[in-house]
Write a structure and sequence with these properties.
about 200 residues; mainly alpha; about 85% helix; elongated
């Protein structure tokens, strides 16, 4: 499958703050992000349902033996496997499209700005900073656009799994509802340290 992009790129992004630029980038590909988010939610929901149906199939086989209900569970597992394979492929294609649009648009905008300003750019910024913007920051923007659908899909799957667990066991469901955000918060605390190291490396160049 070949991903197509418009021949012209927008040239007037808001530069008042980094988040303003991110919001502008989200709006530029809102349709693509929405489609990728829907496919990601479907993919992760199918992944979450697979062990649930497998558990039902095992319980049915142990309790009642080989019954028509067990065959229905088997067919459901087969359908979930096929659906997951197609959804995962579609999700990857959609997310790569989001990455390419975010990264290439940023690279294009920086390249046009440098072409217009010429030598004046290096009066305020070092050459290493300009190169790092194209080689690193633009890729980070692409990563953000790629991870946005995965985040939305992950939240959808998280909600589905929590609901299934709360239905079977309230303590286990609460453990999942509270434990996962805590682990995410701990990991988020480590990210600024990594960014500080990256900034120090950029300043050194």
């Amino acid at each position: 499958m070949v991903l197509s992009f418009p021949s012209t790129f927008p040239e007037t992004p808001p530069l008042s703050s980094p988040f303003a630029y991110v919001r502008w980038m989200w709006r530029q590909q809102l349709g693509q992000l929405s489609l990728a988010s829907a496919v990601a939610a479907l993919n992760f929901a199918l992944l979450a349902l697979t062990p649930f149906v497998l558990g039902l199939a095992i319980d049915s086989g142990l309790d009642d033996g080989l019954t028509p209900q067990l065959w229905w569970y088997t067919a459901a597992l087969l359908g979930l496997g096929i659906g997951t394979a197609f959804a995962a492929s579609a999700r990857h294609i959609a997310e790569v499209g989001c990455w390419m649009r975010g990264a290439f648009t940023s690279i294009n905008l920086v390249g046009r700005h440098v072409s217009r300003t010429g030598a004046n750019t290096t009066k305020n910024l070092s050459t290493g900073e300009v190169v790092a913007t194209v080689a690193t920051d633009a890729h980070h923007m692409g990563n953000l656009m790629e991870n946005t659908p995965m985040t939305i899909g992950g939240i959808a799957a998280y909600t589905l799994v929590a609901g299934l667990m709360l239905r079977d066991s309230v303590p286990l469901g609460i453990a999942v509802l509270l434990g996962l955000p805590i682990v995410t918060a701990v990991v988020a605390l480590l990210i600024p340290k990594l960014q500080e190291r990256q900034q120090a490396h950029r300043d050194a160049t």
